[in-house]
Design goal:
L,D-transpeptidase catalytic domain-like; globular; alpha+beta; 7 strands
Length: 189
């Protein structure tokens, strides 16, 4: 048994649907890293979010995961304009302020607030690759450039300044399930 399986026993993807719907290498990395967190930090153990930037932005590459059942729902998610190759792929990553790049690694979600992009969710990076997330204002928020219509018309999602933005119609569901201490993992192969 792997260490993460003792913390997330329902996430045995050989026996439930997560094995068919989620990028398994990314999922295993997220759960393994999460198993090293102090238990008091992870306050929301019902939901997690896995974002795989190895997947093209025209595809649904963000996965809201029910940690109790292994079930998931997929969503379009943006990457930073500085991470972009111009073709809809994320290829560069940074933890530097004003880089306008996305940052990889494990995050812990925090409080919600209403700001420039409306209802939003702050996140704290837990790794060297993303520990400046709060200072950089890397948050989950909604944007029209992640809508199905925008993606259909442009062949890719639009880009943020580093935030993992989602479509307006999914914002509340994603944020309300993840707020206040759940896992958020951004992966690239």
């Amino acid at each position: 048994m792997k260490l993460w399986q003792s913390y997330f026993p329902n996430m045995d993807c050989s026996s439930n649907e997560c094995g068919d719907k989620l990028p398994l290498k990314a999922l295993e990395q997220m759960l393994e890293k999460a198993s090293y967190l102090q238990p008091e930090k992870l306050k929301n153990t019902k939901w997690a979010f896995l974002l795989d930037f190895s997947i093209h932005s025209s595809e649904k590459r963000g996965f809201l995961i029910d940690l109790r059942t292994g079930g998931s729902e997929s969503f379009h998610v943006s990457h930073g304009i500085g991470s972009a190759d111009g073709e809809g792929n994320a290829i560069r990553f940074s933890n530097t302020n004003m880089s306008k790049m996305s940052s990889l690694g494990l995050y812990l979600t925090a409080e919600t607030y209403h700001g420039k992009h409306g209802y939003s969710l702050r996140m704290d990076g837990l790794e060297e690759s993303n520990n400046a997330a709060r200072k950089r204002l890397i948050v989950v928020h909604a944007a029209d450039y992640v809508s199905e219509e925008f993606i259909r018309d442009n062949g890719r999602a639009g880009r943020s300044w580093g935030c993992p933005a989602v479509a307006e119609e999914h914002r509340d569901r994603i944020i309300n399930n993840l707020k206040d201490g759940s896992l958020y993992y951004i992966y690239h192969q």
